[in-house]
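Worked example 2:
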Amino acid sequence: MKKLTGKSGFHIGVFISLVFLAACGRPARFEDRLKVVGIFPDTRENPPTAVIHQALDRADRDLLITYEIVENVPPREMERVLLDYVNKGYDLIFGDDRGAEETVRRVARDHPETAFCFHSRLGSVEPNFSVFSFWIHEPAYLCGRLAAHLSESGRVGAVAGESPPALNAVLNAFRAGALAADPSIRVEVVLAGAGGVQEAAGRLIEDGADYIFAGSPEAIPVCRGRGVPAFGNLRNWYSLAPDTMVSGAIWDLGPTVKKVVEEVKKDNYRARDLREWSMMAKGGAYLAPYHAFDTRIPFPVKDEIDDLRRLILSGLYRVPADESLPAP
């Protein structure tokens, strides 16, 4: 191989290019990238897991990390899987500690050199175990205001299969928003249990609810079939029912992932509750676009929602996160 000398314009050009790249920076080599794994008790199709996975998958491209996902890990296998990735030298482990809280936290405690960041409503633990969850009650509140303003029957509903504290806050915020817009409106919340969401959504519609907050996506096909407008939860479900979805409360874990990845890269990661990065002010929650309903929502209503959104983003309007069990 020839040395770089001034006798070859090609080689001088290569040399100048290398100097330029060294001065301006270059993409991290594959082996230099932060190694990140997502470990989940279910599949990437489950709505909360899908949100986490999609944010990590984007980070693989945008934040120059190396990302791998492990799905369907039962509680009895969680310790083995965690230790496998700790021993492989992974820098950051994301996941969901549902069903294996003690195991996950014990492994994190025993390996303080590894950063852990898990979907959990329990607390963070120093020095390396952070927690996050879907704090999307603010856009759910805006959905409630919209529903009340648009309702012609004076009755709106919300339905979910189960109601962990995070979802309690979302359902309670929807109700609070509807009542703030119209104190006389009737808001019925149904917790249908596993397998009962579609039937419960049908009953709400039969009872006169003309707008439905679909806390579980199983309610959306029922609303579509009955021609009743709906609001989504966690993800943008517009593609499931383009003529049915008014808007929704969307969770974006991107700001959380970026915050954690940057801290680990700079070697200043610390355990914390990352809830604020899943709220509107940090970009972790937002109101879904109106899509087909954009021209059907009166301008004064859209202006009110836009004003409230700006106030929430600026910290001048606070939506309480009420995690108590929603009243029927």
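The chain has two domains: 30-132, 137-252+284-314. The longest strand covers residues 245-251.
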